[in-house]
Amino acid sequence: ILNEMLNEMVVTPSKKFKKQTAPRERKRGA
To answer: pTM score, two decimals?
Structure first.
């Protein structure tokens, strides 16, 4: 159960982070 909770805590913010950084990377041309 701990692993599932940790995965949710780590994966969910990482998805949001990727969505937020994606446009920035596109602007950089990366």
So the answer is: 0.32
SS (H, E, C) 1-30: CHHHHHHHHHHHHHHHHHHHHHHHHHHHCC
- Cα–Cα distance between 16 and 20 in angstroms, integer? 6
Is the pLDDT at 15 greater than 70, yes or no?
no
- 25: tokens are 């990377």
Whole-Å CA distances, 18 to 2, 7, 8, 26: 24, 16, 15, 12
Separation of alpha carbons 1 and 17, rounded Å: 24
Q: Which two tokens stand for residue 8?
A: 């949710």
The conformation of residue 29, written as its DSSP 8-state character, comes to T
